[in-house]
Amino acid sequence: MSNVAGAPSPRTAGLEAIDHFSASEKEVLPGRQLAAIREAAPSFREWFAGSGSPGWVRTCDLIALPYPRRYALWRAALSPAPYVRIFNRMLAVRWRDADGSARTMLVEPTEHDLAANTPYFAAMEARHPRMRSMAVVVHGTVEGHLERLGIAPEEVDYLTFDHLHTQDLRRWLGTTKPAPDLVAQGKVPEDMAGEPLDPVFPNARLLVMRAEWEQLADGALHPLQRRWYQQRTFGSLRTDRVEVLDGDTLVGPGIALLRTPGHSIGNHSVVLNTSSGIWTSSENGVHAECYSPERSRIPGLRSHAREWGAEVVLNANTPELAAYQVNSMVKEKLVADRGGPGGEWVQHFPSSELTPWVGSPGTSPSFVWSGITHGSLSLA
Ligand SMILES: [Zn+2]
Fold this sequence. Notes:
binds zinc ion; 5-stranded antiparallel β-sheet; 12 helices; alpha+beta
């Protein structure tokens, strides 16, 4: 038995349960759930806007990589190009708790060279060995960005991912056993080959929704999701700093995690109240145009919206929960403010954002967010 579903950690002081959407979560029928989400969203927005703002938010570019067009843009895009390019980024968020202590959270701190071991991407690499040199652009690493920003690993209090597809968290959280495969990849020194890994982030807690966490126990992961997780890497992970959440949570002033299942069973969205308004972030959709397909310039999205009455276009590599993913994207759409060109776009910042690419004609969005910037770093 994997230790993944082990005893839950004690609740960290300062995390506050949010119950605005609890009625919608009890609805099994997706149509009724959608109606309940629409009813609950305005009161959540008002309450959340009054919860304050984080002190500082910065965006760190990690990697641009190819991704199948039919996943990124569902059935909507007309382009015959097999791949689009998505840009994976990390958000660094800092704030002061009510007791005055400085807090730091990293959102999507993906170690992308380890993410390449995900079964789906490893198979893609084997099929198209030249793809990496043609289409992958590495912009930075988590550790490199933290050094540049002057954030010591010990200062990081929380790590969170909107879902755990592609993640290998053994270096970040430490392990209970040696990790010889990471020695072979040059990620762990050879003289440490016989030792469990010490965590790179010794004081960080992983914030993860219960369904996302528990599905990684042996026998719990659905076959349709298997190719997207590095499930075997979770069996030796240290779990003493894993904070399993049972629902929507206020992490700090103007910082919330809202359950948005669909892309994965335990997906959540990070919600930030900033000087540019409220933002949501997840991988449910790959671009702001996917949240307003009726005004998208990507060929196919407008007609898809018209024919299907589609309010959103799913990132559909895992379409088995499609109706719930639609609901989650509408939830994000109702929570986020509007901005961008003309001030009309849903401020959803995709953790992997669709980006114009010469290798993918007919899929270029009209703009990209590129990042969220908020506040000044005066927490030291
Ligand atoms: Zn994913």
